[in-house]
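This is your field. Pick holes in the following sequence-structure pair:
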Amino acid sequence: MRKVILDTETTGLDFRTGDRVVEIGCVELLGRRITGQRFHAYLNPGRPVADSERIHGLSDDFLADKPKFAEVAADFIEFVRGAELVIHNAAFDVGFLNNELGLLEHDGIEQICGEVIDTLRMAREMRPGKKNNLNALCSEFGVDNSGRQLHGALLDAELLAEVYLAMTRGQNSLEIEFDSPAVDYTAGGTRQRPPLVVLAASEAELAEHARVLGEIVKESKGHCLWRDLEGAAPV
């Protein structure tokens, strides 16, 4: 499945009050490989960037000669069409992009693309009670973000691609591991299974498991299926 990691920068927080997109950055993933294919555009929003400049560093003077969204819309749509989008805090970016597309009477992101994956929601489920902004996730998953002094759509999309791959590592059970030992079959067709290896959790791992369950209980107001199952009588 082709995925596109996407980020935007804007003039403010609410397109409903007239805020517009000033930068779009997209990075392509095929399977679990960053292909090097990118879409990137700075945009003239047709209004002052105002206080948002301190977030993304893009000034009115810098954006003055950049294209309007209408001038890059066709190329953007072509790049993302049919892909699954991976976005951090997806509702924000999708809202702004749908506003830009709607002003041109184009279909919305949901019609152009496939599923939209929100990595903020994923992170909150994986790390309840912790900070889950991009910097925090880079730190958690060992992604080098030392070059990120300001927000930037393309840079943030590149970092999010690395974070997403780290967050979803181990979820690809259908991938073949070619270096695994082959399973033998006898002449009569009986499969000879390799010996089963059981690894017991260490005390430290058990303690960490208990700590994580405690956080889940706290976040879910006392509901934790794993705790319920652990307390159930064996059948």
Remarks:
- The mean pLDDT is 85.
- DSSP finds ten helices and seven strands in the chain.
